[in-house]
Specification:
mainly alpha, Arc Repressor Mutant, 3 helices
């Protein structure tokens, strides 16, 4: 198993140890689970690539631009 050294400030180390103790796992296991959870959260969901390209350009309609007269009136704040 690989090893590494990690340097934390005292407050962060205390929090990590407390969390690991509460979860009844080793500090190493707790830190590994945090790293894995972070990576999993950044991954694309399984369904993403299944839906990629599901719409064609014909399925997407550009809305019509409203006329200038339909625009809300504005007043300049600097006047």
């Amino acid at each position: 198993m690989a090893q590494t050294s990690v340097y934390f400030d005292a407050a962060t180390m205390e929090r990590a140890q407390s969390q690991a103790k509460r979860m009844n796992i080793s500090l190493s296991s707790h830190l590994a689970s945090l790293v894995n959870a972070f990576e999993d959260a950044r991954a694309w969901p399984d369904s993403f690539f299944a839906t990629f390209g599901a719409l064609s350009e014909d399925d997407i309609e550009m809305p019509k631009r409203p006329s200038w007269e339909a625009d809300a009136g504005r007043s300049a704040a600097w006047e």
